[in-house]
Amino acid sequence: MQEKIIILDFGSQTTQLIGRRVRELNTYCEIVPYNKFPYEDDSVIGVILSGSPFSVYDERSFKITLDGLRGKYPILGICYGAQLMAYLNGGTVEPADSREYGRANLTFVADDPLLNNISVGSQVWMSHGDTITALPENFSIIASTEDVSCAAYRVQDERIWGVQFHPEVYHSTDGTQLLRNFVVDICGSRCDWSAESFIESTVKELRATLGDDRVILGLSGGVDSSVAAVLLNRAIGNNLTCIFVDHGMLRKNEFQNVLNDYKGLGLNVIGVDASEKFFKDLEGVTDPEQKRKIIGRDFIEVFDKEAHKIEDAKWLAQGTIYPDCIESLSITGTTIKSHHNVGGLPEKMNLKLCEPLRLLFKDEVRAVGRSLGMPEHLIKRHPFPGPGLAVRILGDITPEKVRILQDADDIFISGLREYGLYDSVWQAGVILLPVQSVGVMGDERTYERAVALRAVTSTDAMTADWAHLPYDFLANISNKIINTVRGVNRVTYDISSKPPATIEWE
Question: 79 an active-site residue?
C-alpha cells in the first residue's frame, strides 16, 4: 500500500507548492479540500493544514474539528493552519500591528525534532495579516523571530506542530529541511515514491483495469500527452491507438517532426491533417475566445470521426496531470479548472476516461518520461497552447499569417537552442501583431508587419517573469527575422511579467 501525507487545503495559493515539496522528499501526498479528509484510508501517515486567504475569526473562514485526527496522525499547521489549531483550542489570534510579510530570521526557544538540522538565524518567509498573541495552555513556543514571538509551536505530549511562516516557499532557506523533519522523521515516511515506483505500480494498475480493451489517446505533441502515451504503450502495447490532429497552426514542420518522434518510440499513431477545415471555419474570426471555441469544436469533430474508424474502443486516454485535478476553490463552490484536454469527447463518444498521469505534477511527469527512456527534446518541450499559433496571431487567421509566424517562431526557438538558452526559459514564442510599420530595405520604403518575441521564466506558470535574454542574442534574432521572413520589418521584445500580464497575449 502506498503510504501518503494528506494536505488539507484551506484555499492558500501555495497549497500546491506544499504538495510539490513533499513529493520532492520521495513521499506521496494528496491535496484534498479541508473538509474531505479520507478517514477510511489506512495508508495516511500524517496531515498538513495549509494556509488560507481568510482570518480564523472571519465568518467566511473554513473551520474543522480535529477530533478524528488528533492522536491518530502527526499534524503540521502552516500559517492559517497553525492559527486555526491555536484558535480552536482557546488561543488568541488577532490582526497584527502591521502585516507580517517578507523575510525573517528564526531564533530557537526550545529543542524540538521539527527544528532538527536547521541553523539558528535561518531565513523564513512570513505572509500573514494576523498573528497568534496567546497560545492555549498546553501549547508551547519552540521558535520566534524579531517581530513574531510565536513563529512555531508544539502541543505538549502530542504530535502536533504549527508554524506561522511558509516552509514551502523558496525564500525559506531551510523550509525543505523542516518539511523533511516532519514527513520523514516524525511521520516515518519510507521515501519510496519515485518515477520508477510510479511506473511500476501504474503499469500494473493499467493492465488490471484495461485488460484487452482498446484505448484511444489524443496526442498534442506536448509533454503530458506524450508521456501518457508511452506509459500506456508499455502497459497495453498495440491496444493503444494515438490520434494526432494537425489544425494547421502548429509550429513549423511540427506535424511531421512529432509524428516521426512518436513512431520512433514505437507508438501506434494516426496523423490527421485537418488544416483546411480549421482555416475555413476560422475565416474572419477575430475574438480570442471565439477562436478557441471553434478550434475546440472542430477538434472534437475531427477526432470523433477518426476514432470511429477504430473498432471496439472502450477508453479515451488523456494527459491530465495533478494541477488540472486539484480544485482548490471547490471548497467555496467554485471550480478553478473543469475542462479536460479534449473536453466533451468522453460523453460524446460514450467512452470511459483513462488518465494515467492524474497524480503527477509537471516536474514528475518529466521524471517519468526520462525513466521511460523518452528523448530529452520531447521531455523538455516548452508548454504550447492547445489552439496553437491561432492565439499568437492577434486578429483574424489566414494561411499567410500562419506562414509568417511559423517562420519567425522557428528562427526564435532554433536560436534559443543554438545559444543554449532554451532550457532556462519556461515558455517562448513569437506573436504576430495586428499592425504594420514603415521600414527601409535597401533603397525601398516598406510597410510590413511587426512581431513581438515573448520568453518567460517560471516554475509553474502561476507567476512568470520576462526572461532577461542577452542583447546580442536578441539583436541576432531580430536581424535574422527581418532579413529572412517575408512580410516582417520590425521586431519587439515583450518585457511584461505575470501578473499583471499573462504569458500568452490571447
Answer: yes
